[in-house]
Amino acid sequence: MPDSVLVHSPATLSNLGCGFDVLGLALEAPYDAVRVTLSATPGVRIQHLDPYNLPTDPAHNVAGVALLAMLQAAPDAVGFDVEITKGIKPGSGVGSSAASAVGAVVGANALLHNRFSKMELVDFAMEGEAVASGARHADNIAPAVFGGFTVVRAVTPAIDIVALQSPPLWVAVVHPQIEVKTSDSRKVLPTDVPLKLATRQWANVAGLVSGFLTADYDLIGRSLDDYIVEPARLPLIPGLAEARRRALAAGAIGGGISGSGPSIFMLNKTAATAQTVGTAMGEVFAELGIEFHVYVGPVATQGARVVSA
């Protein structure tokens, strides 16, 4: 086993409309590149090879905190040196913090002869997510570890992730270049939900999972509506309603806010439709004078993976 590995850790969609903090989906791109090196020097050292000026103190870095949690469970490992090149812009709403945390623990686990299970890796990486958002949640972490479509059934008292294969789907994501911090976007969420709305939301979660299991694209589209979280976050993302309207008119199955935003995702049956939908959404932000990036690609069949020593 080498003493250093390079991991590609994917962007992810979370919530998927109705599934707040529960549902997630892995993307083929973009991804973070994380090199982890086993070290005889105790502790964790972080270096960022990107322009985002993220903290390198391991106690305040998502990858560092995740690895410190792993070292508590594997003290014989002594230490790790980590180099992170972020392909996922922080604050983009496509799992930037989760990608770095997951990439670090997947790389470290490979160097430790894969002694930890995927559920345990989720647990370690969630410690990093708590640093980024103030909440120990797994809806981005789970698909980054498992790939495909994931359901976070529980995180306490034990982590319970249901990993499912996605039917063939192409995703168009538009990322307007405005920042929406996860911690800030959580502050606008309602603390009480009327039972009638909650019932409609539960029905959509059940419908969405069923749609993925049966490759029923129409059911997936009908079930992506969010009656609770997205309405509260709508004012944070200018152009959201119009981008959704044009995406659906261009043939998208459905979509919504990715994570806490500002990215907006749309699911599509084909690559060609996804390209058309991405262009249609981008035009909205061009008209608003907001810079943006568009990502188009398939759902990833696997999560973070070692690509080279």
What would you call the quaternary organization?
Answer: single chain
Count of alpha/pi helices: 10
Euclidean distance between termini CA atoms: 9 Å
Chain-averaged pLDDT: 94
Helix and strand string, N-terminal first?
A: EEEHEHHHEEEHHHHHEEHEE
How would you describe the shape?
globular
Low-confidence stretches: none
* β-sheet strand percentage: 25-35%
Q: Sheet bearing the most strands, described?
A: 7 strands, mixed
What gyration radius follows from the Cα positions, in whole Å? 19 Å
Helix content: 25-40%
Number of strands: 11
Q: Which class best fits the helix and strand makeup?
A: alpha+beta
Description:
The radius of gyration is 19 Å and the shape is globular. The termini are close together. It has 309 residues and is of the alpha+beta class. The chain is built from ten helices and eleven strands.
What's the arrangement of secondary structure elements?
Elements: E1 4-14, E2 23-39, E3 43-48, H1 62-73, E4 79-85, H2 96-111, H3 118-133, H4 141-146, E5 149-154, E6 160-164, E7 170-176, H5 182-187, H6 195-214, H7 217-223, H8 229-233, H9 240-249, E8 254-257, E9 264-268, H10 271-288, E10 292-298, E11 305-308
Parallel strand pairs: 3-4
Antiparallel strand pairs: 1-2, 1-11, 2-4, 2-5, 5-6, 7-9, 7-10, 8-9
Helix pairs in contact: 1-2, 1-3, 2-3, 6-7, 9-10
